[in-house]
Amino acid sequence: MTLKELREQYLKHKQDDFKGISLEQQCKMYHKIKDLLTQQIVRPNCCLAAQHYPSIVFRLNDYYDTENSDGHWHITLIEPSWDFVFGKDYSGWSDEKPDVKFCPYCGKPLPKMVRTKPGPDQKICKITDGGYYCDTCGERCDNCICDLAESVFVPEENLND
Q: N or C of the chain: less Cβ packing under 10 Å?
């Protein structure tokens, strides 16, 4: 079952207050959607290690105007030693983290990412209120099952193909 089909089925059940569906089935469906959404996280495709161990991912500037943000390569692993090394608190989302320019596994430069138009089946999460609610579906960000805003980005070299 595709993400679109699963999402439509879930929303249909939700509209009916999940009548005729057990809580266990509801949770399984919701978590399957979240698993499929996790696959939309943009990772470097330069080597297998970068795909399997995502220490670097492409992210938008979190929770603010995700429709117009350019995004950046982001370090997902927070090292306790960063406080000591950089002399600042790096535990959490911060724009002060070092710019990531190379894959930590193979050393290749990370591609420049370019925003494309969403596909006709894509329902893109749009957040403008600082990270509380999705403007597209109206759900709290933690419960949103829209496509990730980053899912419309592709490496620039793929546009020439």
A: C
